[in-house]
Design goal:
The chain has 291 residues and is α/β, with parallel strands linked by helices. It folds into 2 domains: 6-103, 60s Ribosomal Protein L30, Chain: A (2-Layer Sandwich), CATH 3.30.1330.10; 115-290, Phosphoribosyl-aminoimidazole Synthetase, Chain A, domain 2. It contains 10 helices and 11 strands. The protein has helices spanning 21-37, 57-73, 124-132, 138-149, 156-159, 173-181, 202-207, 213-222, 234-239, 258-267; strands at 6-14, 42-52, 77-85, 90-99, 115-118, 163-168, 187-191, 226-228, 249-253, 274-281, 288-290. Strands 6-9-5-10-7-11-8 form a 7-stranded mixed β-sheet, with helices on both faces.
Length: 291
């Protein structure tokens, strides 16, 4: 727009992943707002985008209440929106944000020897599938709801650190979104699987076959990029492809500031934050090494 202001504009809409409409509204709004935060921006204004059955308007009211609360928490203005009739509920936001043009954080610009930091645990797709099958424990579901509802807003102190690249983890899973970071020739990533945060008790749901279709598809598409230590189990590996809703941020940051960033993120309430790997030089072959 000028030398000190850039306009960010994004849209995201999802179908319900949870039974409670109010909670669904919060999660859908947090998920949409995440696109602005993943660029280092601040949300300014949002429009509701809604498709809903016309015989379930009380539920729609609750969805909108949950969304409005998250928009207010983000400090943005809710300026209306648009609705259409549909058999299956859908809700999301179109959002405008602001950022200094020289402070935009792109999702494809990591630097060699950067550390990789993940701010939220993986596994929400698996637990959402277990919910649909009516086998999820309430305590396990509550932890997933907590993380999906949490805004990916970073403090100005964190954003002043040398973050070279950043993205949020959503439908393509950790591996898919990490792949989007590694567009430059000769750049790859090493992941330390034991360091990667996961929601609790995923093992029993994986054993029960609660693997989302999107997660299976992610593995089919992206596993050709991955070299895996044989000691890593199938259970550990599938979580890395799990399709997330309102997942955490993946930061590629100067290694000298990685511990400082982790400390600040923990203070901000991202208690699952871990340093999960580093950016490495590769000559050929696989882009992502699992250790």
């Amino acid at each position: 727009m000028n030398e000190t202001q850039a306009l960010l504009f994004t849209v995201d809409v999802i179908t319900p992943i949870i039974d409670d409409p109010y909670t669904f509204g919060k999660i859908a709004a947090a998920n949409a707002l995440s696109d602005i935060y993943a660029m280092g921006g601040n949300p300014l204004m949002a429009l509701n985008i809604i498709a809903f059955p016309d015989n379930r308007l009380e539920e729609l009211k609750s969805v909108l209440q949950g969304g409005a609360e998250k928009i207010a928490e983000a400090g943005a203005l809710l300026a209306g929106g648009h609705t259409i009739k549909d058999k299956e509920p859908k809700y999301g936001l179109a959002i405008i944000g602001l950022l200094h043009p020289r402070k935009v954080i792109y999702n494809h610009s990591p630097q060699l020897d950067d550390c990789l930091i993940l701010t939220k645990p993986l596994g929400t797709g698996i637990l959402s599938t277990a919910l649909k099958a009516e086998i999820v424990e309430r305590s396990d579901l509550n932890q997933a709801i907590f993380w999906m509802s949490k805004l990916n807003r970073l403090s100005p102190e964190i954003l002043r650190l040398p973050i070279h690249s950043m993205t949020d983890i959503t439908g393509f899973g950790l591996i898919g979104h990490l792949k989007e970071m590694l567009t430059e020739d000769g750049i790859g990533a090493e992941l330390w699987v034991d360091n990667i945060p996961r929601l609790e008790n995923l093992k029993k749901y994986i054993a029960a076959g609660m693997i989302p279709g999107g997660t299976v598809k992610n593995k089919e598409i992206y596993s050709c990029l991955v070299e895996k230590n044989p000691a890593i189990s199938e259970e550990q590996e599938i979580i890395l492809y799990d399709a997330q809703t309102s997942g955490g941020l993946l930061l590629s940051i100067n290694q000298e500031k990685a511990e400082k960033a982790k400390e600040l993120l923990l203070r901000k309430g991202f208690t699952g934050t871990k340093i999960i790997g580093r950016i490495i030089k590769i000559s050929s072959g696989k882009k992502i090494i699992l250790k």
